[in-house]
Write a structure and sequence with these properties.
There is one protein chain. This protein has three domains: 96 residues, 3-Layer(aba) Sandwich (GIY-YIG endonuclease); 68 residues, no CATH class; 169 residues, Rossmann fold (3-Layer(aba) Sandwich). The chain is built from twelve helices and 14 strands. Strands 9-14-13-10-12-11 form a six-stranded parallel β-sheet, sandwiched between helices. Strands 2-1-4-3-5 form a five-stranded antiparallel β-sheet. A three-stranded antiparallel β-sheet has the order 7-6-8. The radius of gyration is 25 Å and the shape is flat.
Length: 374
Amino acid sequence: MIAKVEPLTTARSLRGPFDYLLGAAHDGVGVGSMLVVPFGPRRILGVVVEVAEASDLPPERLAEPLSALEADVPPDLVRLGLWVAEEYVSTPARGLALVLPPGTGTGVGRRTAARRSLVAGLTDAGREALGGAERLSGGQRAALQALVDAPLRVSALSEAGGCDHAGARRLERRGLVSLQRTIEPPRRPEVRGVGALRRVEHPTAAQEAALAQVVGAMDAGNEASDRRLLLQGVTGSGKTEVYLRAVQAALQRGQTAIVLVPEIALTPQTAARFVQRFGDTVAILHSQLSARERFDEWSRLRSGAAKVCVGPRSAVFAPLSDVGLIVVDEEHDGSYKQEGDPRYDARRVAERRAAACGAVLLAGSATPRPETVL
């Protein structure tokens, strides 16, 4: 098999894709896989944009990828990134960089990856040793005692029992503990609401009518060729409650949802409403998070642990599967336009993504743009 790889480089004059031969060690590589490949005298990161049976070049002239990253990108997002590059006259690498995990792409230094830690667990022999079966020093006994209830990271074991990394290794060699590297659970960013979060028990007649149209578009299936809807209402008219209930309807149908807000400053206010309603199924993506927080939230969306993404324009590229609803709040706001290359309009990208996956696109505003109304 041949992987057609788009190299992630800032050079505008260089664009692929380039063919690489997939060997037996590359089982499972497909569209969206991220590979470290030889590129002349360098090693660079690339994204698989297509997998083919054969190449125009003979096999002996093709190099094999050096390694594959654990993180990958959904194939539909690869297509979306390439579309953005073409639509906004950018390079494939810069278009793909929009959909990659945080900490990868063009112009980054050290790549962000899942955080791993060394975890110690008490073995049966360790439990017997606590009962007097073996001689233990005071520090060793304290370390084993700290593991009775549950495994601990070795760093935490050092604090709880005074046993450092070398001491944990000595206990492992004696068979008293087991050591294993595990992926740490993601760290959630703190969401602070602004003002009182009041839950609406009964929607108004206007809200029910608007929600009925949204749900009707969700259930229309292939019969509906256009699932773009405009929710027009003045500030304070209850548009957010319609968004919340529309997201709930999508989740009930086994789908996911993206909620776009125009400014980072509005993200905590909106996110707090959604977190209150849907709990840990909500993830937040915006540039004010740390690299680790962004990567952890991205990973929760990619794994399916989170099914609702709230954020400004970059959240339109959230790695969700089975997207059933995309909300664009305050769709008239000019901050949906990206100033850097690629200079995309998140509203246009949301429209493209919704059409590609058969999702409902719900735009809300008190003063919608003329092109949205028409």
